[in-house]
Amino acid sequence: MKFATTLLVFCVCALLMLGLVILYSAGMSGPGAKYMVSQLVWAVLGVGACVAATTVDYRHLKKISWILLGLSVLLLVAVLIPGIGKKVGGARRWLSFAGFTIQPSELAKIALIIALAHYAELQQRHMKELKRGLLLPGLGVVVVLGLIFREPDYGTTMLLGCVAGILLLLAGVRWLYLIPPVVVGLTGFVLAIAFNPIRLSRVLAWLNPEAAKDGVGYQSHQAMLALGSGGITGLGLGNSRQKLGFVPEHHTDFIFSVIGEELGLIGSLVVVALFIALVVSALYIARGARDNFGFHLAAGVAFLIGLQAFINIGVVTSTLPNKGLPLPFVSYGGSNLFMMLTAVGLVLSVARRAEVREKSARSNPFGAKEIAGQFT
Which residues contact 23 (CB under 8 A, 6 or more apart)? Predict the structure, then answer.
């Protein structure tokens, strides 16, 4: 367990430092160190939240799991109200308080994982039933996903839907029960895209990138040029040319293109390896959790980070259509960075309590069961 926690912390720190360096490089074409300084402030706040989450027993979250979920729903409703939610680029996803801009969907990600983990522990003997295993938790999932979808934020909706589905499967829901809601959800997505000209054009540009490289597919095309020009070893830090106004959002959703151009294929593969190691270590911690709640909590965070990184890198490399999701710990964005670091703290809290059980078992193998029972 100690090796897994050390590896997890190392991967997060490496990605965080890389993000700050690349953000400084990305700002050289315009705002200078603005991106890096702002991200550094959120990183400090996030690390503080991570340490606090690690210190506090994660099981206390069970007392407030429904409160957190309810609060996230209220914020998601508030963001949709004109005059309260901040509208940028046709989407209403942000709330502004005292000069800070937050994205309620980031809180909703963690709140939904906590709520599902708590529900899975409470109903662990009934998760194979249709009503208790799927319909009741599915109702809460649908409410959260529906509000995020309405912003609109199709990428986060799909991400959270996948994470929720995986958690329900891990909790014991029969996979046959999940087929109808998955079919309905995918059908709804297809219809929504078909009647949304902007998103339909993105999908068509993804299917035929050469024909759309000067239009809707311009961003993806330029990102591919950046990755290609980086070659094996890259052009060197600060030497990216595509960041000079050619790749839109190169400091947020498409920051991986800057990494590929400046650090090359080697640097890109290192980033992928860091995410893989992070997810594997978090899943190992989940496997060693002392209770069902800790298992689902750590596993949910692992799949959240892993799938978001997979989608972001997939979009930048044109493997997936444009989704608009940041690269965890690397992309510019305070809300996402803060919540991701907090989520890592929760995983470390799970590992910390598991280590207490391991030490108890080693020191007194005959009384380990009784000692562990004192913590439950």
Answer: 35, 36, 39, 251, 255, 332
